[in-house]
Amino acid sequence: MSAHPVEPPTDGLIPRPERTPEALRLALARVAPHRLGEMDHQKDEAFALAAEHNNLGPIRQWLTIWAGEVEIERRPDLAARRRNAEHAVHTLDKDDPAWRAATQELLAVVNEARENTA
Fold it and tell me: Which of 46, 64, 84, 115 sits between 20 and 30 A of 109, alpha carbons compared?
């Protein structure tokens, strides 16, 4: 352990966690504790599928999904973009061109978050 204290990030964000189940869970507990149950449920499902099929793919996918979710939750800019897009998707008519734009924005947010955590 270092004798020097770790400086908090100057941008106000929590540090990006490592891509491990424990680190992601600890980070989520700081930025979106209301989502811990969802994370744990999906983790249990991923580990069960991995064991059933003797394949680490479901665990890798769970790590990718939740690293992205933590990235979105830890960054107010991404979280706001997602909230706005989700609101539009849930309130606009599917024939409205703004609905399609909102779905594209949701995808862009998820892709940006996942690219930042890869």
Answer: 46
What contacts 24+ positions apart, CB below 8 Å, involve 35-44?
35/69, 35/73, 39/66, 39/69, 42/66
Q: What tokens appear for 106 in the block?
A: 């949701």
CA 56 to CA 6: how far, in whole Å? 34
- What contacts 17, CB < 8 A, 6 or more positions away? 23, 24, 26, 27, 67, 70
pLDDT digits (tens, 9 = 90+) for 39-75: 999 999 999 999 999 999 999 999 999 999 999 999 9
CB 18 within 8 A of CB 28: no
